[in-house]
Amino acid sequence: MSEEEQIDFTIVTPSFNYAKYVRECIESVLTQEGVTFEHIVQDAGSTDGTLDILRSYPHLKLFVESDSGMSEGINRGFRKARGKWVMWLNTDDRLLPGALAAVKEFAEKHPEADIIHGAWNFVNPDGSIQRPMKALPFSTRMHIWYGTYVASTALFLRRETTIDQGILLDERFRYDMDGEFYARLGLAKKKFVHFNKLLADFRWHGDNLSAPNLEQTDMTAELKRQAQHREDAAIKRVYGYSFSKHSLNNILDGILREVYRMKKAVLYFTTPWEK
Questions:
Q1: Is the model's pLDDT at 3 over the cut of 50?
Q2: Nearest to residue 103, comparing CAs of 7, 203, 197, 202?
Q3: Cβ contact 127:203 at 8 Å
Q4: Burial class of residue 257 (count of CB atoms within 10 Å of its CB; 0-12, 13-18, 19+)
Protein backbone atom coordinates (compact mmCIF):
# COMPACT_ATOMS: atom_id res chain seq x y z
CA MET A 1 0.00 0.00 0.00
CA SER A 2 1.37 3.40 -0.95
CA GLU A 3 1.89 6.23 1.52
CA GLU A 4 -0.96 8.16 -0.12
CA GLU A 5 -3.40 5.28 0.36
CA GLN A 6 -2.49 5.11 4.03
CA ILE A 7 -3.60 8.70 4.74
CA ASP A 8 -7.25 8.88 5.69
CA PHE A 9 -7.56 12.64 6.13
CA THR A 10 -5.94 15.92 5.22
CA ILE A 11 -6.79 18.84 7.48
CA VAL A 12 -6.10 22.25 5.90
CA THR A 13 -5.86 25.25 8.21
CA PRO A 14 -5.59 28.78 6.79
CA SER A 15 -3.78 30.92 9.34
CA PHE A 16 -3.13 34.59 9.97
CA ASN A 17 -2.59 36.26 13.37
CA TYR A 18 -4.76 34.01 15.56
CA ALA A 19 -2.26 33.16 18.29
CA LYS A 20 -5.07 33.33 20.85
CA TYR A 21 -6.81 30.26 19.45
CA VAL A 22 -4.46 28.37 17.16
CA ARG A 23 -3.04 26.01 19.79
CA GLU A 24 -6.51 24.67 20.58
CA CYS A 25 -7.09 24.04 16.88
CA ILE A 26 -3.81 22.15 16.43
CA GLU A 27 -4.28 20.07 19.58
CA SER A 28 -7.82 19.11 18.58
CA VAL A 29 -6.42 17.48 15.44
CA LEU A 30 -3.26 16.07 17.02
CA THR A 31 -5.24 14.11 19.63
CA GLN A 32 -7.46 12.33 17.06
CA GLU A 33 -7.08 8.55 17.27
CA GLY A 34 -7.80 5.56 15.06
CA VAL A 35 -7.01 7.29 11.75
CA THR A 36 -4.04 8.53 9.74
CA PHE A 37 -3.89 12.20 8.85
CA GLU A 38 -1.74 15.08 7.75
CA HIS A 39 -2.28 18.64 8.96
CA ILE A 40 -1.35 21.35 6.46
CA VAL A 41 -1.18 24.92 7.74
CA GLN A 42 -1.09 27.78 5.24
CA ASP A 43 0.04 30.86 7.15
CA ALA A 44 -0.10 34.19 5.35
CA GLY A 45 2.73 35.74 7.41
CA SER A 46 1.52 36.08 10.98
CA THR A 47 3.28 38.61 13.22
CA ASP A 48 1.50 38.04 16.55
CA GLY A 49 3.32 34.92 17.77
CA THR A 50 1.20 32.47 15.79
CA LEU A 51 4.23 31.19 13.87
CA ASP A 52 6.15 30.49 17.09
CA ILE A 53 3.29 28.28 18.23
CA LEU A 54 2.99 26.51 14.89
CA ARG A 55 6.72 25.84 14.68
CA SER A 56 6.58 24.10 18.06
CA TYR A 57 4.56 21.29 16.44
CA PRO A 58 6.94 19.25 14.23
CA HIS A 59 4.13 17.12 12.79
CA LEU A 60 2.60 20.09 10.98
CA LYS A 61 3.23 20.72 7.31
CA LEU A 62 3.66 24.47 7.67
CA PHE A 63 3.83 26.79 4.67
CA VAL A 64 4.37 30.51 5.24
CA GLU A 65 3.25 32.27 2.05
CA SER A 66 1.54 35.58 1.47
CA ASP A 67 -1.82 35.25 -0.25
CA SER A 68 -4.76 37.32 -1.45
CA GLY A 69 -7.01 36.04 1.33
CA MET A 70 -8.38 32.94 3.03
CA SER A 71 -9.74 31.40 -0.17
CA GLU A 72 -6.33 31.35 -1.83
CA GLY A 73 -4.71 29.96 1.31
CA ILE A 74 -7.24 27.13 1.51
CA ASN A 75 -6.84 26.32 -2.18
CA ARG A 76 -3.08 26.08 -1.78
CA GLY A 77 -3.61 23.58 1.02
CA PHE A 78 -6.17 21.65 -1.02
CA ARG A 79 -3.71 21.28 -3.89
CA LYS A 80 -1.09 19.84 -1.52
CA ALA A 81 -3.53 17.39 0.11
CA ARG A 82 -2.87 13.63 -0.08
CA GLY A 83 -5.62 12.31 2.19
CA LYS A 84 -8.63 10.39 0.93
CA TRP A 85 -10.85 12.92 2.71
CA VAL A 86 -10.03 16.63 2.99
CA MET A 87 -11.44 19.37 5.18
CA TRP A 88 -10.49 22.86 6.22
CA LEU A 89 -10.44 23.80 9.88
CA ASN A 90 -10.03 27.46 10.75
CA THR A 91 -7.53 28.47 13.42
CA ASP A 92 -10.27 29.46 15.88
CA ASP A 93 -12.22 26.19 15.49
CA ARG A 94 -11.57 22.70 16.79
CA LEU A 95 -12.46 19.07 16.14
CA LEU A 96 -14.21 17.11 18.87
CA PRO A 97 -12.53 13.97 20.27
CA GLY A 98 -13.09 10.95 18.05
CA ALA A 99 -14.45 13.02 15.15
CA LEU A 100 -12.14 11.68 12.43
CA ALA A 101 -12.59 8.05 13.45
CA ALA A 102 -16.36 8.51 13.40
CA VAL A 103 -16.24 10.08 9.91
CA LYS A 104 -14.01 7.27 8.62
CA GLU A 105 -16.43 4.63 9.88
CA PHE A 106 -19.40 6.52 8.44
CA ALA A 107 -17.66 7.01 5.08
CA GLU A 108 -17.00 3.29 4.75
CA LYS A 109 -20.78 2.75 5.00
CA HIS A 110 -21.49 5.43 2.39
CA PRO A 111 -19.26 4.87 -0.66
CA GLU A 112 -21.64 7.04 -2.70
CA ALA A 113 -20.70 10.17 -0.73
CA ASP A 114 -18.62 12.91 -2.33
CA ILE A 115 -19.16 15.21 0.65
CA ILE A 116 -19.92 14.25 4.25
CA HIS A 117 -21.16 17.03 6.50
CA GLY A 118 -21.68 16.68 10.22
CA ALA A 119 -23.24 18.47 13.17
CA TRP A 120 -21.34 21.08 15.14
CA ASN A 121 -21.45 23.33 18.20
CA PHE A 122 -21.45 27.09 18.16
CA VAL A 123 -19.07 28.05 20.97
CA ASN A 124 -18.25 31.34 22.68
CA PRO A 125 -14.81 32.99 22.49
CA ASP A 126 -13.84 31.21 25.72
CA GLY A 127 -14.79 27.84 24.23
CA SER A 128 -18.03 27.34 26.19
CA ILE A 129 -20.91 25.91 24.18
CA GLN A 130 -23.67 28.21 22.94
CA ARG A 131 -25.81 25.61 21.17
CA PRO A 132 -25.50 22.49 19.01
CA MET A 133 -26.46 22.60 15.33
CA LYS A 134 -27.80 19.54 13.51
CA ALA A 135 -26.53 18.26 10.17
CA LEU A 136 -29.58 18.34 7.91
CA PRO A 137 -30.09 16.72 4.48
CA PHE A 138 -28.53 18.93 1.82
CA SER A 139 -30.63 20.63 -0.85
CA THR A 140 -28.82 22.78 -3.39
CA ARG A 141 -31.85 25.03 -3.87
CA MET A 142 -32.37 25.47 -0.15
CA HIS A 143 -28.68 26.24 0.25
CA ILE A 144 -28.85 28.91 -2.46
CA TRP A 145 -32.04 30.60 -1.29
CA TYR A 146 -31.94 30.16 2.48
CA GLY A 147 -28.19 30.51 2.84
CA THR A 148 -25.37 28.27 4.02
CA TYR A 149 -26.64 25.79 6.61
CA VAL A 150 -23.71 23.38 6.60
CA ALA A 151 -20.46 24.20 8.40
CA SER A 152 -17.00 23.92 6.86
CA THR A 153 -15.65 23.00 10.29
CA ALA A 154 -17.59 19.71 10.10
CA LEU A 155 -17.50 19.01 6.35
CA PHE A 156 -15.29 16.52 4.51
CA LEU A 157 -14.57 16.29 0.77
CA ARG A 158 -13.70 13.09 -1.03
CA ARG A 159 -10.53 14.34 -2.72
CA GLU A 160 -10.78 12.07 -5.77
CA THR A 161 -14.21 13.34 -6.84
CA THR A 162 -13.92 17.00 -5.85
CA ILE A 163 -10.52 18.63 -5.44
CA ASP A 164 -8.75 16.31 -7.87
CA GLN A 165 -11.32 17.29 -10.48
CA GLY A 166 -10.33 20.93 -10.08
CA ILE A 167 -13.31 22.00 -7.96
CA LEU A 168 -11.77 24.60 -5.64
CA LEU A 169 -12.85 27.75 -3.86
CA ASP A 170 -13.56 30.84 -5.94
CA GLU A 171 -10.80 33.18 -4.80
CA ARG A 172 -12.88 36.24 -5.66
CA PHE A 173 -14.99 35.48 -2.57
CA ARG A 174 -13.81 36.86 0.76
CA TYR A 175 -16.75 36.13 3.09
CA ASP A 176 -19.11 33.56 1.59
CA MET A 177 -16.54 31.38 -0.14
CA ASP A 178 -17.96 28.25 1.46
CA GLY A 179 -21.50 29.12 0.38
CA GLU A 180 -20.43 29.56 -3.24
CA PHE A 181 -18.30 26.39 -3.12
CA TYR A 182 -21.11 24.18 -1.82
CA ALA A 183 -23.60 25.64 -4.30
CA ARG A 184 -21.24 24.79 -7.15
CA LEU A 185 -20.65 21.27 -5.80
CA GLY A 186 -24.40 20.76 -5.56
CA LEU A 187 -25.01 22.00 -9.08
CA ALA A 188 -22.24 19.64 -10.26
CA LYS A 189 -24.41 16.81 -8.82
CA LYS A 190 -21.88 15.87 -6.18
CA LYS A 191 -23.46 13.70 -3.50
CA PHE A 192 -23.82 15.32 -0.06
CA VAL A 193 -24.50 12.90 2.81
CA HIS A 194 -25.38 14.29 6.24
CA PHE A 195 -23.91 12.70 9.37
CA ASN A 196 -25.92 14.04 12.28
CA LYS A 197 -23.23 13.55 14.91
CA LEU A 198 -21.39 16.38 16.66
CA LEU A 199 -17.94 16.57 15.09
CA ALA A 200 -16.53 20.05 15.72
CA ASP A 201 -16.79 23.42 17.44
CA PHE A 202 -17.29 26.64 15.49
CA ARG A 203 -16.12 29.59 17.57
CA TRP A 204 -18.41 32.61 17.20
CA HIS A 205 -16.86 36.00 17.87
CA GLY A 206 -16.71 39.45 16.38
CA ASP A 207 -13.59 38.77 14.33
CA ASN A 208 -15.08 35.95 12.23
CA LEU A 209 -15.01 36.87 8.55
CA SER A 210 -18.60 35.67 8.27
CA ALA A 211 -19.85 37.10 11.58
CA PRO A 212 -22.55 39.76 11.27
CA ASN A 213 -20.98 41.89 14.02
CA LEU A 214 -24.41 43.03 15.12
CA GLU A 215 -23.04 44.57 18.29
CA GLN A 216 -21.22 47.23 16.31
CA THR A 217 -22.80 50.17 14.56
CA ASP A 218 -19.73 51.79 13.07
CA MET A 219 -19.00 52.24 9.39
CA THR A 220 -16.45 49.40 9.24
CA ALA A 221 -19.00 46.89 10.51
CA GLU A 222 -21.66 48.11 8.11
CA LEU A 223 -19.33 47.97 5.11
CA LYS A 224 -18.46 44.41 6.05
CA ARG A 225 -22.16 43.50 6.25
CA GLN A 226 -22.81 45.02 2.85
CA ALA A 227 -19.88 43.12 1.33
CA GLN A 228 -21.26 39.86 2.69
CA HIS A 229 -24.68 40.69 1.26
CA ARG A 230 -23.18 41.31 -2.20
CA GLU A 231 -21.54 37.89 -2.23
CA ASP A 232 -24.75 36.18 -1.10
CA ALA A 233 -26.73 38.07 -3.76
CA ALA A 234 -24.22 37.07 -6.46
CA ILE A 235 -24.74 33.38 -5.61
CA LYS A 236 -28.51 33.77 -5.94
CA ARG A 237 -28.30 35.66 -9.23
CA VAL A 238 -25.81 33.34 -10.93
CA TYR A 239 -26.88 29.96 -9.52
CA GLY A 240 -30.54 30.70 -8.83
CA TYR A 241 -33.01 32.89 -10.71
CA SER A 242 -32.78 36.46 -11.90
CA PHE A 243 -35.17 39.07 -13.28
CA SER A 244 -34.06 42.06 -15.28
CA LYS A 245 -35.63 44.39 -12.72
CA HIS A 246 -33.74 44.56 -9.45
CA SER A 247 -36.89 45.12 -7.37
CA LEU A 248 -38.35 41.81 -8.55
CA ASN A 249 -35.18 40.00 -7.51
CA ASN A 250 -35.51 41.41 -4.00
CA ILE A 251 -39.09 40.14 -3.79
CA LEU A 252 -38.07 36.72 -5.14
CA ASP A 253 -35.21 36.46 -2.65
CA GLY A 254 -37.50 37.26 0.27
CA ILE A 255 -40.24 34.80 -0.72
CA LEU A 256 -37.90 31.88 -1.40
CA ARG A 257 -35.89 32.51 1.75
CA GLU A 258 -39.06 32.24 3.84
CA VAL A 259 -40.18 29.10 1.98
CA TYR A 260 -36.88 27.41 2.67
CA ARG A 261 -36.75 28.72 6.21
CA MET A 262 -39.94 26.75 6.87
CA LYS A 263 -38.53 23.69 5.12
CA LYS A 264 -35.38 23.90 7.24
CA ALA A 265 -37.46 24.10 10.42
CA VAL A 266 -39.34 20.93 9.43
CA LEU A 267 -36.07 19.14 8.65
CA TYR A 268 -34.60 20.19 11.99
CA PHE A 269 -37.44 18.60 13.94
CA THR A 270 -37.59 15.44 11.80
CA THR A 271 -33.87 14.67 11.47
CA PRO A 272 -32.75 12.34 14.27
CA TRP A 273 -29.37 12.53 15.95
CA GLU A 274 -26.89 9.83 15.01
CA LYS A 275 -26.73 7.16 17.68
A1: no
A2: 197
A3: yes
A4: middle
